[in-house]
Amino acid sequence: MHFSIPETESRSGDSGGSAYVLRKEYGANVLPAFPPKKLFSLTPAEVEQRREQLEKYMQAVRQDPLLGSSETFNSFLRRAQQETQQVPTEEVSLEVLLSNGQKVLVNVLTSDQTEDVLEAVAAKLDLPDDLIGYFSLFLVREKEDGTFSFVRKLQEFELPYVSVTSLRSQEYKIVLRKSYWDSAYDDDVMENRVGLNLLYAQTVSDIERGWILVTKEQHRQLKSLQEKVSKKEFLRLAQTLRHYGYLRFDACVADFPEKDCPVVVSAGNSELSLQLRLPGQQLREGSFRVTRMRCWRVTSSVPLPSGGTSSPGRGRGEVRLELAFEYLMSKDRLQWVTITSPQAIMMSICLQSMVDELMVKKSGGSIRKMLRRRVGGTLRRSDSQQAVKSPPLLESPDASRESMVKLSSKLSAVSLRGIGSPSTDASASDVHGNFAFEGIGDEDL
């Protein structure tokens, strides 16, 4: 997966010059292979192919915190995006959705990166500067039923306008959601009126989608608080509910508790949750705490056709992504669990951000931060501001939704301490060591 950028790329063109600098700075074995350029104009099919390659490349490097924080690398990728799509720098209108479907239209430059667009949305909504870092922009695909499928969190070096328009489909949208996992940080956001309204709108939307698990009695209490316009009390109750603040992924397949098991994965509260149904059994849930994942890796492969024909439901040569993590099931027993999903890279990024947040909290730090400013730049405030609309009252709970039982009561959280680099059968460059991992003692079993 990791090898050097070709010399033809590294010494020609503006992006190529940056690539050469990066290769010298980080070494040939650190950088993933960069999608090669051609000397002649690209056909529409070649532009689309390069866009897909560039998207996979950006997701891959996002998993490396060293590269992700490099301004040289970020500048290199920003130019590569514009060059690939041949988009000139100009002012445009960009639509960003809130979790409740409300549209926020902002004026940005095609060359503006994610933090610039996020600032513009915050200015439009009148969200204070010191709360901007609590929210992020996500690229999603809107399904026929109106629900969202998460493609990825837009990264710092991305150009949101280029990212969404290059997909050439109206079903792709940009959505604003909170970016942290620990609900304790809600207190910071709820101090502000706009922050409170954004959290409230997101929570109502997640309940309606079935992402947050609610009993009939809890649903009745929540609706009563809505009728009283008690938003803070509504959120306090919601914080106690299962899967509050989680991101839910599309249905996929895992090898736990048995091979080829259909599951729905959710990420939040320092864990991955797998909802599944075994033959003849009710809906069950397995919770994998990030503090008990020794390491994880993302791998890709192209399934071989069976009998000379493509596999059912798969396009010819379609790449299959897998997230595998080594989990401490019990004392002295580690087991690899593999999830096969097109969203495997985003799952990995979620795991890394949860670990980062845990380590910041352990060190006594805070995620409260200001977004870094461009050199010589200032925060652009909008001439016309837009209020966050209050969502409608919750509808009656879906009678078809089942309650779940835990697969195991032993999958519980543990305390934190750092460890050295893990040793596995995979190459070190492919494995993400977890510095929030700790073994468990007899009292945890």
| CATH topology description of the largest domain | PH-domain like
- Structural class label: alpha+beta
Specify the CATH architecture of the largest domain: Roll
Q: How many beta-strand segments? A: 15
- SSE pattern: HHHHHEEHEEHEHHHHEEEEEEEEHEE
- The pLDDT mean sits at 78
CATH level 1 class label of the largest domain: Mainly Beta
Low-pLDDT stretches are: 1-15, 310-316, 370-379, 408-429, 441-445
CATH superfamily label of the largest domain: Pleckstrin-homology domain (PH domain)/Phosphotyrosine-binding domain (PTB)
Major sheet: size, sense and barrel closure?
10 strands, mixed
Rg computed from alpha carbons, rounded to a whole number of angstroms:
22 Å
Tally of individual domains: 4
Instruction: Give the proportion of residues in helices.
Output: 25-40%
Give the strand content.
15-25%
The number of helical elements comes to 12
Shape: globular
Distance between the termini: 38 Å
